[in-house]
Fold this protein.
Amino acid sequence: MSKSRSGNFFEDFKPGQVLRHGVPRTLGEGDRSLYIGLTGSRSALNTAATTAVALGLRSAPMEDLLVFNVVFGKTVPELSLNAVANLGYADARFLQPVYAGDTLTVTSEVLATKENSNGKNGVVYVRSTATNQAGEAVLTYVRWVMVHKRQTDGVAAQATPMPPLPTHVDPSRLVVPEFTQTRYVTGVTGFDDLWEDYAVGERIDHVGSMTVNDSDHSIAARLYQNTAKAHFDAHLMAQSPAGQRLVYGGHVISLCRSLAYDGLENCLGMLALNGGSHVAPVFAGDTLSCVTQVVDTYALAGEVGALRLRTIGAKNIGTAGAIALPEPGVPKPRFPSEVVLDLDYTVAIPKKQP
């Protein structure tokens, strides 16, 4: 039985512990194509190498959320194989583009742990960092996950304080690729909305909706090598409070980001994921729609600016117009039961006037 891989339970995590996740992953054009097939992404920068080269990059980079989900998947065997649920993200920064042929390696540091009052599980806070084959960091983020305890009748673990996390990634910490001739993208997308055209508080109702297919969310989790039992083991999950397998939250984020293309066509990629939470579970057969609000605008140096956005995703609610936005400044609003995702992120977008 010594070779049985049962994963880590809550008791196994200690602050300061560093976990080196196995099996580096080389990303290729097949990963890009499959990601488009699973999400319907239409990102101009990531879809055509000719567009990326015209904007100053050496080729089309991989989708930012494809990279995020692959990195996340690398961490699952050690961090969340025995998870109850992934709860949220913060302080994520995309540090440089990832291209086809790049190989990613991931490590995580445990920041804090806190046992829940029910004595059955606890929350583990970690920072994960991905590096490429040259040892250069390409992505770093914090996430917190609720993990089952191995023994529910043991002595309660002492809580360790969580270091304070920023409410958002400050513009001074954003890393922007060296874009040039960025207004070229409007001729590719057919839309002229640039940084100056977006106002703080503006609401964008995205017209599309997408039903989550059972096969698609299973393939997505396998694409990311996410082995969490909650996404694969129907027998186990039939006995859980959910009663069925959960759709991996990263797939929900990717679907909502793809739906949010409409109205944000000229975005040049995600620079930061300021924070996010999976408000409610998503199951196969649910239909997603989303709305985005402009939280802030940043006049960065050079040809591009940045938009801080908040996308709210909901299920089985019809069009995005039916989704109510939370009040500004409320960090943990009470959402109706249909809301499944609250995502705060920052994107790059060309300026009209550099």
About this structure: The CA atoms of residues 228 and 276 lie 20 Å apart.
